[in-house]
Amino acid sequence: MKNFFARRALQTQLLILALGCVVATALTATVVVLSTSPDNQVMRLRLIASLSVVAAVSLGLMHFTFIRLLGPLRSLREAIFQAAEGRLDTGIYYSQQADVYQLRQNFGRVIQRMKHSQAEQERAQQSLHARTRTVDRLLEFSQNIQGAGKADQVFATLGHFLWSELGLAGLTVLTSEPDAIPAVQSRVCLPPSLMAADRPLTEMESSMCPCLRNQLPRHFRADGSPVRCSIDSLLTLGADHPAFCIPFRTGGAAQAVAHMLLSPGQEWTEDQKHLAQTYVNTAQSALISLHLLNEAEKQSMTDPLTQLFNRRSLDSLMQREVALAERHHHALSLVIIDMDKFKQVNDTHGHAAGDHMLKAFADCVRITLRKTDLAFRYGGDEFVIALPQTTTAQAQAVVQKLRQAFGAVDFSDAIAHLDHQPTLSIGVAERSAANGVLTLQSLLAAADQALYDAKASDRNCVKVYQPTKAA
User: Fold this and answer.
1) Parallel, antiparallel, or unpaired: how do β-strands 243-251 and 309-310 relate?
2) Closest Cα partner for 14 from 71, 63, 62?
3) pLDDT per residue as tens, the chain (471 positions)
């Protein structure tokens, strides 16, 4: 550009010099004529007129030349000023002059490159803004599930973020746990009408889900392929919805799968898959931590041999039951059970035989009691059972079923030469103001007194606490 302006300046100077020479020659000729013919008035007038015409033509030519030279340059200057201010949508005066035309073309290419760079910068800013928002949402999700104290809260939070961040048409999170009833459960279902009413979830076999079976995420395209996830058969949305499944562990033998569907016509991108996997991985860590915490708490509260509650947890759990009975005016019965002649079994057949008998009794407790009842291993062969909302008569019926279940256990395979079927001595007491039994300590003492009466009656029986009558 510098060379271009230098050439233009030189051309202008040469043109002005040529015009000046013409004017000077005309003036010189005029002076010579006037000096040789001073008396010729007509000649002087003609010369003056000629000189005026030459001067006018020269000035017009100079004006035209400046317009031709400076017009495109002014247009180019204005375009450069506008481009410097960030206004790239500008035009340049068109000129057929080779240098100006070439300069215009070069400047146009510069403007196009600047526009392209500006568009790239805007796209980069939008991408950075989207990624920043994604990171902020992931941090928010992590903080939410870290504050969750239950697995259901983690599943609900996971479903909310997957649904809102990925723009899903359908989402379900299912869990499969062999020991649970039912084994397959729905934790998240969005929208609520996603599950087909005529295809119950209980009919699904987790082994038929390729994601759960192989423990690998899988993408199911809406291309008419006959191979789809078995979860699709439970949903109201058809196979024209592209699906993406992510299996994950929740702790122990339990596992889960997040089944996500997009609207027809959309397709899963790698960024969407990675984002969904990140959310699931974060939720999986939280669920496993909760499972381990629950297991540790359960182990601290349960007896390792019988898996019943231990004596350490009796105070806290029973104080709650006594408070609930007081508040709602419900009955509460307490049972203390002792295995008859348990020490003889240990001495004669060994501690392994005694442990087997204790575990067998715990199994009988689990199949006999309700879910709301509480069973504790109180000592070596002593057990305490709390029966909320149960009167003395009802408690007697419960313990009779327990005695029958324990009496039907066959110990011959595990304990050789057992000379008698093990029996139970049981004492029952009910929380009652009439008996003066209101606190946990008094309730335990009353049930223990009833157990003492059962042992004194040659064992293998059930006794109910009877308050001592004043003389």
Assistant:
1) unpaired
2) 62
3) 545 555 555 556 556 666 666 666 666 665 555 555 555 566 666 666 776 777 677 666 666 666 666 666 666 666 666 766 666 565 554 554 555 566 666 667 777 777 787 788 888 888 778 778 888 888 999 888 888 889 999 999 999 999 999 999 999 999 888 777 778 888 999 999 998 887 777 666 666 677 777 888 988 888 766 667 778 888 888 888 999 999 999 988 888 999 999 999 899 999 999 999 999 999 999 999 999 988 888 888 899 899 999 988 998 899 999 999 999 999 999 999 999 988 888 888 888 888 999 999 999 999 999 989 999 999 889 999 999 999 999 999 999 999 999 988 888 777 777 778 889 999 999 998 888 888 999 999 999 999 999 999 888 899 999 887 644
Q: What is the fold of 309-464? A: Alpha-Beta Plaits (3.30.70)
Structure tokens that stand for 139 in this block: 């941090």
Residue type for 385, please? I
Q: Which of 462, 457, 468, 469 is nearest to 393 (CA)?
A: 462
Torsion of CA 285, 290, 296, 302, to 10 degrees: -140
Instruction: Say if strands 170-176 and 184-190 run parallel, antiparallel, or are unpaired.
Output: antiparallel
Verdict on whether the full-model pTM lies above 0.70: no
Neighbours of 25 (CB within 10 A): 11
The H-or-E segment that residue 406 falls in is helix 392-407
Residue spans per domain, the chain: 1-146, 151-295, 309-464
Q: The domain 151-295: what is its CATH number?
A: 3.30.450.40
In Å, what is the CA distance from 90 to each residue of 74, 87, 171, 278?
14, 7, 51, 47
Pairing outcome for strands 424-430 and 462-464:
parallel
